[in-house]
Specification:
alpha+beta, globular
């Protein structure tokens, strides 16, 4: 019944929207500006809680009287089942999907919406593929909404669409056409890029056109506090080019590509949904959780941005022109990607993990309130290294960190708490093979004191201190700072760098080298005393990673004081 006592139809259609081939669409180009524009187009096409101006909301409003909940007003309660005049309602954004509810009538509002949205995407974001599925259901009927979304849509119709997509054959052009330098598709026009006239497809053009200024204006609302009065020298620009991250002319420079992904987030949404008793509670729960993750991600990104700005304002980091050495590309949820000056990659990744945990500590879950943990992969490569390959490397490194978490928690058995972790790789030249092949080739050695293959790297690491564990960011940070700042080492850098090769020879050789040159290895918290004496503990070297990272690490203020 509505407020006037009239019976409301309880038959609806639930719709789910997903994107396919999203990574290739965003990161297929080696131009940062295209990556930025592509990410913003995806955000417009799939929506998020941060902004009200996206294509999902715009297409919904064209249908008539619809309900789009306002995050700022904490509008958790669904309304479509209470008000017969409402024909559609946005349920929530989560897990890379968008969920909507339409009244099941002869007007077929779900189909009308689909036509509006797909036409908008075809025109405004050519090359972006979406999958949309619908399923009729009855409010608080025999089968709950959560099960319809999980089984009928995500694991049913949507999965079938993604496994057997409708074939698309783009016109590749005639013999007189030129190919786009970014996508390989037929060129639509030529533009001046990097001082050279280049042919571009409609897809590449749409990404470039939306990036400036739309994507930056959107980002500024998140990373800059508009209420703070800033001095003139604090008005920084957000870069569109990797050369503006800090590169100086004729200077060898590196960029860091960071990929961060939440741990077990899909399972968390699923478990939290399972304990809801009806459709109303399910929608409230999903909104509460998805809003919380989005807000925490936004706050963590703002904290990272502020850490960078503080370094610049305190003259601890020199920037090029007026550009921040930091550029978020994908953000707004638990899946985050950003690029920065190579020397800041490790610090900023750990800062985000720390703040994301802090801002999610009160998020609801099946077991009450629990923080969200995440893993980070950091690829530190030459500035002009192909961006798409650097992104692929960062994803592989993130997967390594997740594998480490699974192993340490007995496959998320609940016996040990899930934690945040990170893995990284520093590449001074082209990469040959996968990260597992690189580790096998460059970081596995046979030392005399161990009858099996030993590991030069201590990565992946826990991002925070943990009882009885020495492979943590805190320990690594202590060692790097010691090598870079302690009087016994900072003026004998060549001896420290030479130690890297000695470590390959094993424990005895390392101990002899340390004694011969009067060096002292810093202790790791919670580590056996033999680690600082021999450089190794069992099959793990504790110092190779720190020496390798000495030139690729600039501490943030809080870290420097640890």
């Amino acid at each position: 019944m509505d407020s006037r006592g009239r019976r409301i139809m309880n038959k609806y259609i639930v719709t789910v929207i997903d994107t396919t081939g999203i990574q290739k669409y965003i990161f297929g180009s080696n131009r940062l500006k295209e990556n930025v524009g592509a990410s913003y187009l995806v955000k417009l096409a799939t929506g998020d809680w941060i902004t009200d101006h996206n294509w999902i909301n715009d297409c919904l409003r064209k249908l008539g009287n619809v309900y789009i909940p306002d995050v700022a007003s904490n509008q958790l309660e669904p309304r479509i089942y209470q008000d017969s005049k409402i024909i559609a309602e946005l349920i929530y954004f989560g897990g890379g999907n968008t969920f909507l509810l339409f009244r099941d009538t002869e007007e077929n509002y779900a189909q009308q919406f689909t036509k509006l949205l797909t036409k908008k995407i075809l025109v405004e974001a050519p090359g972006l593929n979406v999958a949309i599925a619908h399923q009729p259901f009855e409010w608080n009927g025999e089968k709950p909404l959560r099960d319809i979304i999980k089984y009928d849509l995500i694991k049913g119709k949507l999965d079938i669409q993604k496994r057997k997509p409708i074939s698309s054959y783009p016109l590749l052009g005639l013999s007189v056409t030129a190919a786009c330098v970014s996508t390989g598709l037929v060129g639509a026009e030529t533009r001046e890029i990097d001082g050279i006239t280049r042919t571009l497809s409609r897809e590449a053009i749409s990404k470039l056109d939306i990036a400036d200024p739309n994507a930056n204006n959107y980002l500024k609302k998140i990373i800059f506090d508009e209420n703070k009065i800033r001095k003139r020298n604090e008005q920084y620009d957000i870069p569109y080019d990797v050369d503006d991250l800090g590169r100086s002319e004729n200077e060898s420079s590196y960029m860091a590509v960071i990929h961060i992904d939440g741990n077990q987030m899909g399972k968390r949404f699923e478990n939290y949904a399972e304990i809801q008793s009806n459709d109303q509670e399910f929608i409230i729960a999903m909104r509460e959780l998805s809003w919380g993750v989005s807000q925490a991600s936004q706050n963590a990104l703002e904290a990272v941005s502020q850490a960078v700005i503080n370094l610049i304002n305190e003259d601890k980091f020199k920037i090029k022109d007026n550009y921040l050495p930091f550029r978020p590309i994908v953000y707004g949820g638990d899946d985050v990607n950003f690029v920065c000056d190579g020397r800041l990659g490790l610090s900023l990744a750990v800062k985000f993990l720390e703040k994301f945990e802090e801002f999610t500590q009160d998020l609801p879950s099946k077991n009450g309130k629990e923080k969200v943990t995440a893993c980070a992969g950091i690829a530190i490569v030459k500035t002009h290294y192909p961006f798409s390959k650097a992104y692929d490397l960062s994803k592989s490194l993130c997967s390594n960190a997740k594998k480490f978490v699974r192993e340490e928690t007995d496959n998320y058995s609940g016996k040990q708490p899930i934690f945040s972790a990170l893995d990284w790789h520093i590449a001074s030249s082209s990469l040959l093979g996968s990260i597992s092949e690189i580790r096998e080739r460059e970081y596995r050695v046979q030392i005399p004191e161990y009858d099996k293959i030993a590991h030069l790297n201590m990565r992946p690491l826990r991002s925070h201190p943990y009882p009885d564990e020495w492979r943590t960011w805190t320990g690594f940070l202590k060692v790097v700072n010691y090598f870079n700042t302690h009087p016994d080492h900072k003026d004998r850098r060549n001896k420290v760098m030479a130690l890297r090769e000695v470590l390959r020879q094993g424990k005895k050789a390392t101990e002899q080298y340390i004694q011969a040159y009067g060096l002292k290895l810093p202790d790791f918290p919670n580590a056996n005393s033999l680690l600082a004496k021999e450089g190794w503990w069992k099959d793990r070297c504790g110092y190779f990673d720190a020496i390798e990272a000495m030139d690729f690490y600039i501490p943030l203020e809080a870290e420097a004081n640890e």
